[in-house]
Amino acid sequence: MTFRSQLKDGLLRKNPVLVQLLGMCSTMAITTTLFNGIGMGLSVTVILILSNVFISALRKVIPNKIRIAAYIVIIAGFVTIVDLLLQAFIPALSENLGVFIPLIVVNCIILGRAEAFASKHNVWQSALDGLCQGIGYTLALVIMCLIRELIGNGTIAGGFSFINGGNGIRIVPEAYRILIFALPVGGFLTLGFVIAGSQWLSRKLDEKAARKEAEQQ
Amino acid sequence: MIGKLFTIALSAILVENFIFSQFLGICPFMGVSKKPNTALGMGFAVTFVMTLASAATWAVNQYLLVPLKLEYMQTVAFILVIAALVQLVEMFLQKSVPALYQALGIYLPLITTNCAVLGVALLNIQKGYSFLESVVYGFTGGLGFLLAIVLFSFVRERIDHCDCPKAFRGFPIALIAAGLVALAFMGFSGMSIG
Fold first, then answer.
1. Contact B12, B141 (CB under 8 A)
2. Of the residues A161, A206, B8, B101, which has the maximum number of CB atoms within 10 A of its CB?
C-alpha cells in the first residue's frame, strides 16, 4: 500500500462523501461559503488523523466487545479539543458551524474509518489514511461550496475576512443570484448533481483504463 | 405555557423540520427510506429515543455538569448517555415488549450515531429550554423526522421505476427527489407563529 494509492482512494475512488456516501449531514448543512467548507474540512481532517492514530495504537488493548463505545469516547475527546480551540482562536468559524462542530462525533466518516481501517492497520498507515480521507472530504465540501456560493450568492471565496471584508469576490450581480441554492433545498440538489457527476467521471476513467489495457494486449 | 409548547411543537415538526431544514439525521433518512414499512419503524424508533434522550441529557446537564462546572464535557457526556440509553431501551424492549422489539430491534443500534439525537440534546441546551420544553422539542422533533421519512419513502418507491440518466441512477436521483420534498416543506417557513 503506497501513499499514492491511498491518496487516490481518498480523493476519488473511495471518496468518503462522493462514493462512500458518508457524513452527508455536514456536507449539506454548512457548505454555504468557502470559509465554512474549508474550516469544516480541516477540522474533520485533524480529528480524523488524531483518532485514527490513537485507535490504531490502542487496537490491541481495546476489547472487541466494547470497541465501538471506546472509539466513540476517543473521538468525542478529540472533537471537544477542536471545538474549544475553534471557540478560542477562530470564533467566526465556530459561530458559523454551530452545532455541527460537536456533531462531528457522530459523523460516520470518522467512526467508519476507525472500524474499517485504523483497527486493522499500524499507526503510520492509519495516520496517512486519516490524512487522505480528510483531504477527500475537504475536496467534496469545497466543490459543494463553490457551486452553492456561486449560484446562491453570486460570489466566490466568501467568509474569509481578508478577502473583500468577508463578502467574497462577486462574479454574478446581486440581482441575478438564485437564493434557493444557499437554502437547505439547494444542499440536496447540489449534492445530487455532484455525486452524479463523480459517478459519470469514474465510469469514464474506468472505460479509459479498460481500453488502454485492451490496446496493450 | 401551553402556547409556548405549541409553538415549539409546530416549528419542530414543520417549520424547522430536522431533516429538511436543519440537516440532522440525513444518513438514516437516506439509508432506511426505501420501503414505507421500514421507514415507519425507523421513524418510531427515532422518536422514542429522541424523547428519552432529551429528558436524560437535560437532567445530566442540569444536575451533574452545571454544578461541577463541567459544561465543556457536554459532547462526551451526551454521547455516552445516548449510547447507554439506546442499549438500555434495547434490553428493556427485548425483555418486556418483545413485539415492539421485533419491530424496532434492528434500527435501535443505528440510532446511537444518528446526529438528530445528539443534535436535539445539544440544541435543547443551546436554546435554554426547561425540562418540559426539552421533552416536547425532542418528541415533536422525532415526529417531524417520522413525517419526513415516511413521506419520502412513498416518493422513493416510485423513483425505483423511473427512467433517468445512468449517472443519476440510485443515490443522486434520490437526493434530488429529497430536495424537491424539502422545497415543499419550505412553504411552511412563511408561517409566522406566536
1. yes
2. B8
